[in-house]
Amino acid sequence: MKMIQFNVPAPKDKSVYVQEDRLTDFYPYFHKHEEYQFMWIVKGEGTLFLADSFHPFQAGDIFLLGPNQPHVFKKNANSLNDTEVESVSIFFHLKGSLSSLFHMPELSGILEFILHNTNGFKVPHAYTGRVKRRIALLKKASMMDQLVSFIFLLKELSLVAHELKPLSIASVSGNDDGYLRIHEVCRYIKENFRRTITLEEAADHANLTPQAFCRYFKKHTGLTFVGYLNELRIQEACKLITAQRYESMGLVAYNSGFNSITNFNRVFRSITGFSPKEYYSRYKNNI
């Protein structure tokens, strides 16, 4: 899928832009935009495609998409042609008029929550009811009341931050002096994940013992070393599968850094929720 840069038509007098859509289909192009986007699926079902993963959705689901996170919502191919889809989107940009607000000391926790979720998340079903109520209040409000409702929406979600799983591979946290070191390690892993790379090798690159490296890596990425490595490899596998460049899943596995097709299938399913063949079939049926 070819990706395009999308410009959100937000009015200049709004820090938070609410958009309601009732159409025959979702916006059909793989795209990204600079703004964060909350997306509440009011009506419709299908699949959310990202650069390295996809997520089935149905009416009532709510997603946060990060800035410049490529995505497209695809309605199920077996849906009736006259089936209407309905959604509510909330767009906001941290570099705009909200910047000075979120840098107030009282909102530092909210800012940290937003920055930690640049790879987006799906709101767990246990919390969609209360989040929908927050969005409904925000949608009806105007001016200052809308801004207050928006902050309460973020606060509501920040309280369950530990239960939110990124839609895409986790990013590196840069909140302390260790950022440059861990960033360099992640760069090194990204350049070498297609071959065998050990914990000891990565730790040595960071000038840490393996035990210290494990703690340090988990603190900054939210993943274990093996978890991060597997995420990178499955991300690559998804790209190869959808690009249809290889005739067998064995070649996809090998060129993604796996030495065992059995391990590849197991890890692929644990991360995406599907087998490689199911992933390809689902992708093919929705493009």
Automatic annotation (TrEMBL):
Gene3D superfamilies according to UniProt: Homeodomain-like, Jelly Rolls
Pfam families: AraC_binding, HTH_18
GO molecular function terms noted in the UniProt entry: DNA-binding transcription factor activity; sequence-specific DNA binding
UniProt xrefs under InterPro entries: AraC-bd, Homeodomain-like_sf, HTH_AraC, RmlC-like_jellyroll, RmlC_Cupin_sf
Residue stretches in coiled coil: none
Domain of life: Bacteria
Residue span(s) of domain HTH araC/xylS-type: 183-282
Keywords per UniProt: DNA-binding, Transcription, Transcription regulation
SMART domains: HTH_ARAC
UniProt keyword S-adenosyl-L-methionine, yes or no: no
Keyword Zinc: no
Name listed for the protein in its UniProt record: AraC family transcriptional regulator
Native organism taxonomy: Bacteria, Pseudomonadati, Bacteroidota, Sphingobacteriia, Sphingobacteriales
